[in-house]
Design goal:
alpha/beta; 7-stranded mixed sheet; two-stranded antiparallel ribbon; 6 helices; 36% helix
Length: 215
């Protein structure tokens, strides 16, 4: 059975939980559109992301790879379109590192675009009543580093595998500690990510059958 690699992050910045981690735990081992979901939790640590992603991709050889991250303050599921080759950390990672104005990968392109069917996923989630929007900024912290690293590996070593990055809002219990900030129920986020994976797999299948390209 082909696999989907789904990654999330451990808690960071003083939070006790991370919704991306909880989504991965919920979907790990599930079968979605005849693909088995393999979940992995990444550390919020600049030094560890590239070797961990390399190992996960080499081990599982997924047909589709989706990385998830937390974006406190956002009110919808954010479908990230662009990963930039830049680390500019506003805060330190969980190992105390805070790189400023560094490249994610030396001598790599300045940016990569997601190869997920962003518009199709957006339409699918909207049809389910799940708040969603495309985003043109994955930031410049570990989320963007993972997105760029994933895109670079897919472009150079795992050609043919589609992948991208999705940000999810805070959970209600997190937003309660940040007055006035939006949140989303975990069940809604799980349903949204599941639907996104179903849509991405279906679109990838259609692409292979047609032998063409979709945007």
């Amino acid at each position: 059975m082909p696999t989907i690699l789904l990654t999330g992050f451990e808690p960071f910045a003083g939070e006790r939980t991370n919704p991306s981690q909880e989504i991965v735990r919920a979907l790990n081992g599930e079968t979605i559109a005849a693909h088995r979901v393999v979940g992995a939790i990444l550390p919020v640590a600049f030094a560890a992301t590239l070797p961990m992603l390399e190992e996960l991709l080499d081990l599982h050889r997924p047909a589709l790879a989706l990385a998830l991250g937390q974006a406190g303050g956002r009110s919808e599921i954010s479908l990230e379109r662009v990963a930039v080759n830049l680390i500019d950390a506003r805060i330190a990672d969980n190992e105390g590192l805070q790189p400023i104005d560094e490249a994610v990968v030396d001598e790599a392109p300045g940016a990569y675009f997601s190869t997920l069917p962003i518009k199709a996923i957006e339409a699918r989630l909207r049809s389910l009543g799940i708040p969603v929007a495309p985003s043109l900024s994955a930031g410049s912290f570990v989320c963007n580093q993972v997105f760029f690293t994933l895109a670079h590996l897919l472009a150079t070593r795992h050609v043919g595998t589609r992948g991208g990055f999705v940000h999810v809002p805070w959970l209600p219990e997190q937003a309660a500690r940040h007055p006035g900030q939006p949140s989303m129920a975990l069940d809604t986020m799980i349903a949204g990510v599941r639907a996104a994976l179903e849509c991405a797999v279906a679109t990838t299948h259609d692409l292979h059958v047609a032998g063409g390209a979709t945007h």
